Amino acid sequence: MSELKLPTLAWRNIWRNRRRTLITLFSIAFGFMLAVVMTGIGDYSYSEMIDHSARLGGGHVIVQHSTYLDAPSLKKTVHAEPELIEDIRAHPRVRAAVPRVTGGVMLATSINNVGAGVLGIDPSIEDETTLGLVDSITAGEMFTSPDDEGIILGRTLADNLGVDLGKKVVYTVTDKSGEIASGLARVSGIIETGATEIDAGICLLPIGPFRELLGYDPDEATQIAVFLDDHRGAKDLAAELDATFGERLGPVSTTLPWYEAQPDLAGFVSMKVNGTIIMELIVTVLIAAGIFNTLFVSVMERMRELGILAAIGFSARQLFSLVLWESLWLGLCGIVAGVLLTAWPYYYLATTGIDVAQMMGGEGQAQVSGVSMSPVIYIELYPPHALFIALAVVIATMVAGLYPAYKAGRVSPVEVIRIV
Q: Is the pLDDT of residue 369 over 50?
């Protein structure tokens, strides 16, 4: 028989026992749906976490002093000339780039002294897409210019200091030369994110007076935060920026993707991703076991038939290929069935999502490594992951069919034709 007719014969063979084939296809489709839903929820959740974290002050790619990550200090700076910032923004993969001054500060009032993290920003080039805290200002307002004289405090931090809008706060830092320097500002805004770590430990200052207090040059900053539309391009972009602007940034600078600048968050995401992969492997093994059972039983039931085919001229290679074609058809039909079974759940999760606030104790947000997350779970499957799942199903079905195909290829016409 011509090789071109083997696919047709295999297609007919898998439908000779419709009930068994349909049960097998349902198992493949159900496993496909589980893999898509688990992976898609993970893709969306981890992407949201990374983007939230980037908008809390770091960026998807961070340009900073080469030793800042090991020992953060306001003395470790990079120079961010306006021309350089504009050139970075002009890169086709860059959505935004902003200079910032980050570090630690001691805040004092007549009631209390509290240490906090400080973020010096230029409000003229920041918005909710680069600084998520902008959306969390529940009282007062954002600075009007980089030379403003206000300070914005987290709600818990303001309560600990005993201040509210319009009250004065003294902030003290160690400047670039190592001297103690103090500034005075009035509370112009209150941040309330729902995340305790943020509300109790963050304040914002306009970058102009903060630079002056620290003894910085007008273009000096502790970091340049770079933002992308897709965080998965952070590694490549970091390498490109380093190669293109490394000399202009200076020998003391380094360009890091988010996962190197935030190893705690990267470790959490990696752990969860690996857990999802393990679950998918278990599902794949179960799918393969079901397909193996279907094909093996099918082959054993057709031993006499296969012997007759061998007697009339089918080679061992053709019989082997025939069963592999049956396995391939099961895999491809399983993917189609999986897409049909997954379509509605995926649409629902992508548009409506699942509110798990009650699972979080009724709180509005969850925190992971200091990152606030929405309690509504959505789904967004990355195309490469969808392709990987489809290939995994096909490969699993093909592997499951190897031994039944081997048995079919080894059939002896003289022995099996005598079977009644």
A: no
